[in-house]
Write a structure and sequence with these properties.
Layout (H helix, E strand, L loop, with lengths): L6 E5 L2 E4 L7 E6 L2 H4 L3 H11 L4 E4 L11 H8 L1 E8 L7 H17 L2 E7 L3 H6 L3 H10 L4 H18 L4 E3 L7 H17 L2
Parallel strand pairs: 3-4, 3-5, 5-6, 6-7
Antiparallel strand pairs: 1-2, 2-4
Helix pairs in contact: 3-4, 4-7
């Protein structure tokens, strides 16, 4: 992982991997830690560090029932590109869905660039909330009051919008690390140059 000169602690639950800026980030990485933190996203962050792409990634899993940290929302606002790693249990997390909602809000408000990565999930299931994503939203809807139902509608809309964007599909073990990295650095560099 990053050396101590490349890592700065924001709080006990967040880290910023940076190359040239401590106040804004090239990339905000949204992912479900339980199924990608120690594998795919670690490799992704390492590749970004090697390529001088400053990256904000949350280092800890939010406790069940916990609120999304204000530092995370601020980091999204201060990022130029958001990478959303849709994995099998991404939609199980209210925290991930809140991040996604904020990412979509920032796309609309200030043209934040979004690059989805479909990690061992079908992009159509993400777009249409079918299969495991339909199940996750059904679980969120259990015993939901009207306010919560409205929030869930917003999460679904955000997921559909992000799922409709061109991205990278990682679908088997052979390409789980190399395939998305092949063009991702170029895509990010293009997005960064376009957002200046």
């Amino acid at each position: 992982m990053a050396s101590s000169t490349n890592q700065q602690r924001l709080s006990s639950s967040s880290s910023i991997f940076y190359s040239h800026s401590q106040q804004s980030y090239d990339v905000f990485l949204s992912f479900r830690g339980e199924d990608t933190r120690r594998s795919f996203t670690d490799h992704l962050c390492s590749a970004f560090i090697r390529n001088n792409i400053s990256t904000f990634r949350d280092d800890e899993e939010l406790p069940k029932g916990g609120e999304i940290a204000p530092e995370l929302l601020q980091a999204i606002e201060e990022s130029r590109v958001a990478i959303v790693v849709f994995s099998k249990i991404y939609a199980d997390s209210k925290w991930c869905l809140e991040e996604l909602l904020k990412i979509i809000d920032c796309k609309e408000e200030r043209d934040l660039k979004i690059i989805p990565i479909f990690y061992h999930v079908d992009p159509l299931e993400v777009r249409n909330q079918k299969g495991i994503f339909e199940e996750a939203f059904a679980h969120h809807e259990e015993n939901a009051d009207e306010e919560k139902k409205e929030k869930i509608r917003r999460w679904k809309t955000a997921m559909k919008e992000a799922g409709n964007l061109a991205g990278y599909h990682v679908k088997d073990r052979q390409n789980r690390f190399s395939q998305p990295f092949y063009g991702l650095n170029h895509t990010i560099q293009y997005a960064l140059s376009d957002s200046v």
